[in-house]
Amino acid sequence: MDYWGGPPDPGAPPISDLNRTHLTGDGWPATGQRLPTGGPLVDPSTRAGDVAVYFRDLESHLVALTQKHTMVVGCVAWLTSHALLDAFADLEGVSLVVQKEDWLRPEGPCFTKQKLVDAYDALPATLDRWNLGSPLNECSTQGHRALTDGAVRVVGNCNSSKNMVHPRMHNKFLVFGDDGSEKVCPTCYRGESEPSRVGTTPWWSSVVKEHDCAFEVREVCFEPKAVWSGSFNLTNTAGMSFENAVVLTDPKLVAAYYQEFCSIAALSEPLDWNHVWMTPQWRVGS
After folding, report:
1. CATH no. for 46-179+222-284
2. Mean pLDDT of 40-64
3. Which of 240, 243, 244, 234 has its CA nearest to residue 21?
4. Which residue, among 103, 50, 58, 61, has the nearest Cα to 80 in the 3D structure?
5. What pTM does this model have?
6. Domain boundaries defined on the chain
7. pLDDT band for position 207 (50/70/90)?
8. Residue 163: pLDDT band by 50, 70, 90 thresholds?
């Protein structure tokens, strides 16, 4: 909406939250609804099929989405919102990749955010990358297999010289999911929901002989269900800015974002990184 009217009262306090801005007017709207004395911005958030879009109170919407699932993975440029970190801490598994920054390193010269890193440490780093997607589950280094060195990792080049033009991991997407693991027979590795493998010849074994399957619970397996993406950084400032977010639940689109996470995570480094330039910790192979 566009309203005719003068500038805000110069004596009014500065607006700290752009989403709480009110329109001014002289009683005659140029377009849209009639709000003779001005009014708040309309929230056009809506849903159509498998897609929902949000424009106001994004942090609240993201917390609500988090509470519907048990796990989250994703790539976000920055992660400093304690409200969101508290919500993620209540999940069963978290694996996030952020842009490499000087101030993130616990041993770095610019580190002044101990409270933030403490919040990172409180996130459940329970996801095993071998049970995530390719190519992340194909990487290895000296037998190290899990993401237990932290739920938050970094990727990219650190802009230590503060160049105006600098490539970044600038994504802002999260993939929410749940534990998709099922009980597996330790003899033939058949899932409880799969048909019998007796008489077959799996690539890892000789002919499977007759036996009684004693199903046991296998390790956690992330099953992607929904995606949150858009302009919204996971920061306190973003919650007061004009931002947008899209929530997708179409399986094909969710799978595409999950694939991108797995690709970027395969190139990631520990939070306490050692090299300014991108130096992946893992490699494909043994």
Report:
1. 3.30.870.10
2. 93
3. 240
4. 103
5. 0.78
6. 46-179+222-284, 182-218
7. confident
8. low
